[in-house]
């Protein structure tokens, strides 16, 4: 384990646990795409940005318009949502 003087020593066990949960998860095969890690920080979330654009577009097509607008949180998702109308 490392020690950074800017980090409170009581935070180190939590940070180490979060690092292990994030990087020590198996990958999952999605269609014809390379393996993508679909586990979030706590193992119960699916980071949508790890998915291919086509799959994100398919997910957006299932959302009502109000939720689609809420999903436009960055340039990539904004562009995908704009094309999937």
Give a written overview of the molecule.
This protein is mostly helical. The mean pLDDT is about 70. The chain is built from four helices and no strands. The protein starts with 11 loop residues before the first helix and ends with a helix. It has helices at about 10-25, 55-60, 65-70, 75-85. The longest helix has 12 residues, at about 10-25. The chain folds into two domains: about 10-45, no CATH class; about 45-85. It holds the Pfam family F-box-like. InterPro entries: F-box-like_dom_sf, F-box_dom. This is F-box domain-containing protein.
Radius of gyration: 17 Å
DSSP strand tally: 0
Globally, the shape reads: globular
Largest sheet: none
Overall tally of domains: 2
Mean pLDDT: 68
Please give a handful of descriptors for the protein shown.
85 residues; globular; 0% strand; 2 domains; single chain; F-box_dom; 42% helix
Task: Summarize this structure briefly.
This is F-box domain-containing protein. With 85 residues, this protein is mostly helical. The protein has helices at residues 12-23, 53-61, 65-70, 75-83.
Topology:
Elements: H1 12-23, H2 53-61, H3 65-70, H4 75-83
Protein name: F-box domain-containing protein
Domain F-box: 49-80
